[in-house]
Design brief:
This protein is mainly α. The protein contains 7 helices and no strands.
Length: 181
């Protein structure tokens, strides 16, 4: 019984689908059914009427399609320009990164050279008599003299500071305390 019920349900569904399709295409009339079952071609005047109805719609559709294609072309062109600009920005970023790296390397190199020169000056100051070393350091700016004194052995540094004016020695000691290098 179930099988017969399912068969009847499927047959009713098929018939309703066929009726719906015929109704949607305008062939549900008596002429349409005769034409469908007899295999006759559709009447020409009805087709001409439909073409007249569809002509403005087709023109509007083609116009819209042309507008969409034009817009797609503009978007593709704009996307291409954006890609070029992005590539240019990437190149500029790479160049800036490279320049920054070179700048940092040259600063490091300059700092290394400066440290070497300071060490050489400290070695020279250490080899001098304390009185002469005090006279030489007195002529230097306090922060540079403090940097050099920081590289001199403590024992020698004390002797050099002993030979200086107390005010000048205090200035150099203060600079030694505050050094941030």
């Amino acid at each position: 019984m179930k099988i017969i019920g399912l068969f009847v349900l499927a047959l009713v569904s098929f018939v309703l689908t066929l009726v719906g399709a015929l109704s949607a295409t305008g062939n549900l009339s008596k002429e349409g059914l005769e034409r469908l079952f007899e295999g006759r071609p559709a009447a020409a005047p009805a087709a001409a009427e439909k073409e007249d109805e569809l002509d403005p719609i087709l023109r509007a559709l083609k116009k819209r399609e042309a507008a969409v294609k034009q817009r797609e072309g503009e978007l593709a062109e704009r996307e291409q320009r954006l890609k070029l600009r992005e590539r240019d920005l990437d190149e500029i970023r790479d160049e800036l990164t490279q320049a920054y790296t070179q700048f940092v390397a040259s600063l490091d190199e300059a700092d290394d050279d400066y440290e070497v020169r300071l060490q050489e000056a400290a070695t020279s100051i250490e080899s001098m008599k304390p009185k002469n070393a005090a006279e030489v350091l007195r002529q230097w700016p306090p922060d540079e003299a403090a940097r050099i004194l920081a590289k001199v052995q403590e024992r020698v540094r004390g002797k050099i500071l002993d030979e200086m004016d107390p005010d000048k020695a205090a200035l150099f000691l203060r600079a030694l305390q505050e050094r941030v290098y």
